Every structure is written in structure tokens, then in C-alpha cells.
């Protein structure tokens, strides 16, 4: 396996702190879900942003490999749950929309993208993920 990229982000203060990249081009205040603060985010929003972007990239790659590329939109809904056994867990719903393509082909491409996407691979068998093809 050959590393092609590494992201580095430092957190201080947990869910009441900051995340920042070494070059300071990425810096956000972190708050707990439900806390409204200007220019802040939370781990669930960051996960949703990363997963939706990664999955859409994987989907675009799959469509390119099939010479059948269409605009696509991924909406990731990441929910935080209290879990009696381990404290907390997340669940994800991905809503996938591919323009100008039949549902059967879209479903096939989405299934392939799920096998390619690094986020999907990382959370497989650990996080409940529902993928809905719109």
C-alpha cells in the first residue's frame, strides 16, 4: 500500500475547543451538537462533510470507469446516539442523487462506490449506514 496523502488536524478542548491544521488554513471552533455559535461546527458535521465528499468522489470514479458520468449529489445525515454499552455511537444515512440516469444503473454504481470509498471501508461493520438512491 502506498500513502498518497495525509491530513493533520489538532484538536484542543474536545467538543468545546478548536480544530486547526498546522498551516492554520483550516481552523474551526468545535461545539457540542445543538449548541449554536457563529463559525463553529461539530464532529458529526465534519464527519458528514468528509463522508459525503469521499463517497461522491468514489461514485464519480465508478461512473468514469463505466464511461457513464453524470452530475451527482450526496447528502450525508450523521446522527449521534446514546448507547448503553459504550456511551455514544453514530449512524449514517447517505442520500444519493445521480442526474439523468435510470434507478437500476444508479443503484449499481452506488453499490460499487460503497466498495471503493475509503470512509465506507473504514466504518464497515462498525457504523450503521443506510444508502438511499433517490
TrEMBL record:
It comes from the Bacteria. GO terms for biological process: response to oxidative stress. Belongs to the OsmC/Ohr family. PANTHER family: ORGANIC HYDROPEROXIDE RESISTANCE PROTEIN-LIKE. This is OsmC/Ohr family protein. It comes from Spiroplasma culicicola AES-1.
